[in-house]
Amino acid sequence: MDIALLTLNAGSSSLKFAVYPADAAPTRDAAYRGSVEAIGGQARFRVTASADAGGRADQAVAAPSHEAALQWVLDWLAARHPGLNLRAVGHRVVHGGADYRHPVRVDDGVLAALERLVPLSPLHQPHNLAGIRALARLRPGVPQVACFDTAFHHTLPPLARNFALPREMSAQGIRRYGFHGLSYEYVASVLPDHLGSAAEGRVVVAHLGHGASLCALRQRRSVETSMSFTPLDGIPMGSRCGALDPGVLLYLMREQGMRPDQLDDLLHHRCGLLGVSGISGDVRTLLASDDPRAAEALELFAYRTAQAIAAHAAALEGLDALVFTAGVGEHAAPVRAAICRRLAWLGLALDETANRGHAARISSADSRVSAWVVPTNEEYMIARHAWALTAVA
Length: 393
Hints:
The chain is α/β, with parallel strands linked by helices. It is built from 15 helices and 13 strands. The strands form two sheets. Strands 5-4-3-2-1-6-8-7 form an eight-stranded mixed sheet, sandwiched between helices. Strands 11-10-9-12-13 form a five-stranded mixed sheet, sandwiched between helices. It is globular, with a radius of gyration of 21 Å. It starts with a strand and ends with a helix.
């Protein structure tokens, strides 16, 4: 591997990365995938490699900042491949606003525009941009590409995009954007491999992880999605509540004197599965618990998710297929089963054995609505966009 593409996904205390050979267009299999977790604390550097690349790591590191974490990644890669040339670095950026409908090469103007979107995604955007700035300091001159989670949803029709707010507010950019677009873009790209011609029909994709959302696809284009102005909306998540009567916030402000920063902490960090269970926002922990509060949290998650899937089916005027993806969607068979059972009235018949075995198709052969498990690959989408935008003319 003489030339490589690096993808970065910077979180609040983590830096996830993948490395793809760039001697030719990237394939779905990365040479390396890894992360630096617990940045600013007891940081740990982990890497897994493809069979061809070889080499892996799992060690404690000194990473007091994202820049230090990125330096570890670059140094490790340089040690494995002396003289390696970075063709480009692609970044996951959560919010692209109304203007960025496609991935873009990053320059000072782009960075300034993305900085103005921080209030729309305060939990993610600052860290995404920190990764871009750190790379620019450590590897000046290497092309950087921003890939947006909002871009895939620019196909939303006006009825799905607009809130019932005064028109002047919509003109100011207060509208539904949608998120997890890189995941949905990947799933949409591989749907024909699983569904054949039905991939062009009425499909709901459930991206279920610590952050969770739904997307309704027609002809593999987004026509409805559960997240909206920010990633707080929609179905319950690990520590976010999802859809909430705005009157609750007015009540908390007026009657309990909560400040905006306190509400921000509540909505982002103390709600969802964590808030309902009082135990954890991690589905694996809740599934392993015999505490009735854990079961109640999972039941609420399945109920709200099935309810939202039905609403997306209404937007599609029917449903041909349901696709599960992301950490919970790909690995938590009991959660998938609980959701599917609530959708039996739509004609979805779950194959319990296939579901427990994490098969690709988890619905029975005679099910009117098919159900699938399709692993997502956001890093590949980022690498593909970075390749395309840095191609030599």
